Amino acid sequence: MSEPIRLSKRLIELVGCSRREAELYIEGGWVTVDGEVVDEPQFKVDAHKVELQAGARAEALEPVTLLLNQPAGLDIDSACRSITASNLSEEHRYGRRPLKGHFARQSCVAPLQPGASGLQVFTQDWRVTRKVNADLSKLEQEYIVEVSGQIITHGLERLNRGFNWKGNELPKIKASWQNETRLRMVLKNPQPGLIALLCTSVGLSVLSMRRIRLGGVAMSKLPLGQWRYLASNERF
């Protein structure tokens, strides 16, 4: 029996392409082994049926942006490592096949408040990074904050107009009650600890907080611990 060989080498034998072209075809999800897409050039094959799909293009993958509904307590590195093909949201599995190349060289933009859950954004696209970083001071971030305690008289009005508290100049935000224990807070580029400070200033304690929107991109109904691709029509 012959020794197993790299998938990229088998593809070169089949279609007469260069090594680089073979790698691009495979990494782009254009090659099947026994009918299943394999996107690793180093994958070993022997008697397997290897095919190049119709319309295949030997092009580098387009950079992608991933939106994760991150559980509380994860640091950025752990959150990034948690994104795999297996926890792509079921509702968002149509139209794009997750490839290993989509999970490489991802960087986080506009990180969550420390201890928060919710919308965390990872991207390979320098255009997204540049856009978010350039507009961060004016991008709205929407949080749902679970609180305890009794808000002071006119506390909600104080949050909405901004005020000075114990020597801290607190910015005005958009604050409203979602229910008896949940505040909806919309802020621009909140610094670490600001949400907790705002709540403390009006007599409330933060129990949890969850980001649901960054600029024009909302997390919508993404389940906790799952992710989706940024859609082509979404803009921060």
Descriptive notes:
It contains six helices and 16 strands. The chain is α+β, with helices and mostly antiparallel strands and 236 residues long. The protein has three domains: 5-52, Structural Genomics Hypothetical 15.5 Kd Protein In mrcA-pckA Intergenic Region, Chain A (Roll), CATH 3.10.290; 65-137 and 216-229, Alpha-Beta Plaits; 140-214, Alpha-Beta Plaits (2-Layer Sandwich). Strands 6, 7, 8, 9, 12, 13, 14, 15 and 16 form a nine-stranded mixed beta sheet that branches. A hairpin with a 4-residue loop joins β12 (174-177) and β13 (182-188). The longest helix is centred in the middle third of the chain and has 10 residues, at 126-135. It is elongated and about 80 Å long. It starts with a strand and ends in a 7-residue tail after the last strand.
Quick structural gist:
Helix content is 21%, strand content 30%. The chain has 236 residues and is an alpha+beta fold.
